[in-house]
């Protein structure tokens, strides 16, 4: 399974914040392949998988936003009922914990791209 870089951007919980992050990346010709935003009280994060890691890093560095990066598992799974259950059961059977994940798929699409933050990326990348 391929690995990807996940950018975790610390943000305030206020209107327009996601738009600002998306604009920073978009203005630097970085395409967002997937994102997850979460908030708690006045703080939040925007987690982004981008098409160009180097451009994303440069854009975030020059933006003044606080961010970190981590390696994640990015798996393409068939868009069929039960596929996520079967795949994550395999991870669990190998003692690999999923601490965060997100995915979406357009209706009628054949595959979904799933991004998972896992406890053992090396072992998880070998699960089929």
Mean pLDDT: 95
Helix and strand sequence? EHEEHEHEEH
Number of helices: 4
- CATH class of the largest domain, anyone? Alpha Beta
Description:
Strands 2-3-1-4-6-5 form a 6-stranded antiparallel sheet. Helix content is 29%, strand content 43%. The protein is built from 4 helices and 6 strands. It has helices at residues 17-27, 53-63, 83-93, 121-124; strands at residues 3-12, 32-40, 43-50, 66-78, 98-104, 111-118. The chain folds into 2 domains: 3-71, VC0802-like (2-Layer Sandwich); 72-124, VC0802-like, CATH 3.30.2130. β5 and β6 form a beta hairpin. The protein is of the alpha+beta class and 128 residues long.
Show the helix and strand layout.
Elements: E1 3-12, H1 17-27, E2 32-40, E3 43-50, H2 53-63, E4 66-78, H3 83-93, E5 98-104, E6 111-118, H4 121-124
Antiparallel strand pairs: 1-3, 1-4, 2-3, 4-6, 5-6
Features:
2 domains, alpha+beta, six-stranded antiparallel beta sheet, VC0802-like, 128 residues
Summarize this, please?
The protein is α+β, with helices and mostly antiparallel strands. About 30% of the residues lie in helices and about 45% in strands. It has two domains: about 5-70, 2-Layer Sandwich (VC0802-like); about 70-125, 2-Layer Sandwich (VC0802-like), CATH 3.30.2130.10.
